[in-house]
Specification:
194 residues, alpha+beta, Lipocalin, eight-stranded antiparallel barrel, globular
């Protein structure tokens, strides 16, 4: 699909948006809008087989995520999102790199509830921030299994008030390996299935 290739080409070299110039950001947003117009899945929330699984962030305009790269001595690594439709769970994991042996992660666990055929309400339940070595982090899948088992981590492991810590997300494009979402704070997210 040409529109999809155009978006992937526009994103290339921007390091998930960290290195994107204003001109590149405009071109990427135009490519996103163009691809959204040809969304092959008009009811993404009902397409659990496509939505379910592990995703890796390719591009975002989210200042909350991109600002993780601006912490002194830290660089933003990969960002993952795991969606488990059967339990209405979503896990966001941002890997952080810096000084040797001080690699860390920032993670948020949440529940989602369908609002429309393409919008979900997301209620954040738990935040985990810490060093990978102390948490015992090796892969996103293993880490999520530990969260689901109720493990308390040697980290800043905080329950969140889901009534206050919430937002919504519109899934505006979904196919077998690419997803685009637009959040309540105006952010855009482009993810690929892993």
């Amino acid at each position: 699909m040409i529109k999809k290739a155009n978006l992937i080409d526009a994103i290339a070299g921007t390091n998930r948006g960290l290195l994107a110039s204003e001109l590149q950001k405009q071109a990427i947003l135009a490519a996103i809008a163009d691809l959204e117009d040809s969304n092959p899945t008009p009811r993404p929330i009902e397409s659990s087989n496509l939505l379910d699984g592990n995703w890796r962030l390719l591009y975002t305009t989210s200042k909350a995520l991109l600002n993780l790269d601006r912490v002194p001595l830290c660089k933003l690594g990969q960002i993952y999102q795991c969606i488990q439709v059967n339990t209405s769970s979503v896990y966001n994991i941002a890997e952080i790199y810096g000084l040797p042996y001080l690699e860390g992660l920032v993670s948020v666990a949440a529940k989602f509830e369908p609002v429309t055929e393409r919008r979900v309400q997301v209620k954040f339940q738990r935040s985990i921030v810490g060093l990978k070595s102390l948490i015992g982090y090796d892969t996103p899948g293993n880490f999520i299994q530990q969260i689901e088992a109720g493990k308390k981590f040697t980290a800043i492991d905080t329950p969140l008030n889901s009534d206050k810590q919430q937002g919504w997300l519109d899934i505006t494009y979904l196919d077998s390996d690419l997803r685009i979402g637009r959040g309540n704070e105006g952010s855009v997210f482009v993810l690929s299935k892993t």
